[in-house]
Amino acid sequence: MRQIFLDTETTGLEHKLGHRIIEIGCVEMRNRRLTDRHFHCYLNPERDIDAGALSVHGISLEFLQDKPRFADIAADFLDFVRGAELIIHNAAFDVGFLNAELARLDLAPLETVCHGVHDTLRMAKDLHPGKKNNLNALCERYAVDNSHRTLHGALLDAEILAEVYMAMTRGQESLIMELGNDKTSQAESANQAHNGDQRRSQLIMRASADELAQHEILLAAIQKESRGKCLWLAGESAT
């Protein structure tokens, strides 16, 4: 799966009141590894920036005067995210602004271009109900260094979000890896006992009743830790 971590900065909080995007930052991940590809641009919003928004990101209208309009970069942006899963913190905010920009150009909504949108804020609330789940709080909770984040910035926040997401989803990955290592060790031990140091082609190891029981216990643990999102069990139910 190709994943894109995305963040925006805007002139204000409400796209329905005519506020616009002034910065887009995206970083690409493939197979849980960040690539060298990213998309980043500042945009001329053709309107004033609210004082509250300016205090958050520090991007002035004067700085944006010679920057491109959204219409100028729309095609390149859509090409970058096309077919990917978008991972966004508080996705409703960013997607709402992006769709408003696309609608001004009579273009289809973002969801029709990408492979889906995953909201890490919703994910964090499920994992940590009743706690602060903004990006700074998650960085502290998962020991992600954000000391260089003095102001919000779309590209920097997208990069930090990628690290936070990896930390948030590492539990299930670790359990699966542990399961794989256990099975590998059992297979290697049985193979050596049967053949000494010789390898035997097409050796099939059948799981014992005890191993199957341990497997079910591990799947139940994964299902509990991931709050019902164990992919193995989902695949079994689908078949």
TrEMBL record:
GO terms for cellular component: cytosol. GO terms for biological process: DNA replication proofreading. Binds 2 divalent metal cations. Magnesium or manganese. Pfam families: RNase_T (PF00929). It comes from the Bacteria. Its cofactor is Mn(2+); Mg(2+). InterPro entries: DnaQ (IPR006054), DnaQ_proteo (IPR006309), Ribonucl_H (IPR013520), RNaseH-like_sf (IPR012337), RNaseH_sf (IPR036397). The active site is at 152 (proton acceptor). Residues 2-174 form the Exonuclease domain. GO terms for molecular function: 3'-5' exonuclease activity; DNA binding; DNA-directed DNA polymerase activity; metal ion binding. A divalent metal cation binds at residues 7, 9, 157. Keywords: DNA replication, DNA-directed DNA polymerase, Exonuclease, Hydrolase, Magnesium, Manganese, Metal-binding, Nuclease, Nucleotidyltransferase, Transferase. Its EC number is 2.7.7.7. It catalyses: DNA(n) + a 2'-deoxyribonucleoside 5'-triphosphate = DNA(n+1) + diphosphate. The keyword Cell inner membrane does not apply. DNA polymerase III is a complex, multichain enzyme responsible for most of the replicative synthesis in bacteria. The epsilon subunit contain the editing function and is a proofreading 3'-5' exonuclease. DNA polymerase III contains a core (composed of alpha, epsilon and theta chains) that associates with a tau subunit. This core dimerizes to form the POLIII' complex. PolIII' associates with the gamma complex (composed of gamma, delta, delta', psi and chi chains) and with the beta chain to form the complete DNA polymerase III complex. This is DNA polymerase III subunit epsilon. The gene is dnaQ.
